[in-house]
Amino acid sequence: MSDTLFRHGKKRFFDNEKFPRGFAKSGDFTLAEEEILTLYGDTMQGLETGLIEPDNAEEKHFIKVLENPSKAKSKLERVWLKYIQLARGRKRFHTLNGRSKPETVEDYSNDGTLVEED
């Protein structure tokens, strides 16, 4: 990412609340995406929250992308949008069983014969 004018963050960016084992180990980000987030995440978060002002056209475009995600063109912008969606969006939950309870309940007596209820 040396071809970008985007500033490196003043510190490495981590999200120990949503990704306690790191971005790449979460299974949601590649190693390259993890590197982008750790190097530039502090700056991107500062621009998003308004703590820092954009220095160049690339950073100004990043702020426009936050308002309209379809305008994302750089890898850096797409990675931040992915981070926002995963960190702040709803987490998908997949169950192993499609139904919550069995449809029929059969009651067996202690000797193994089926007991019918009236």
From TrEMBL:
Keyword field: Plasmid
Stretches for region Disordered: 95-118
Any Pfam family: DUF413
InterPro entries: DUF413
Transmembrane regions: none
Top-level taxon of the source organism: Bacteria
Acidic residues compositional bias, start-end: 105-118
Family assignment from sequence similarity: Belongs to the MaoP family.
Protein name as catalogued: Macrodomain Ori protein
Organism field: Vibrio aquimaris
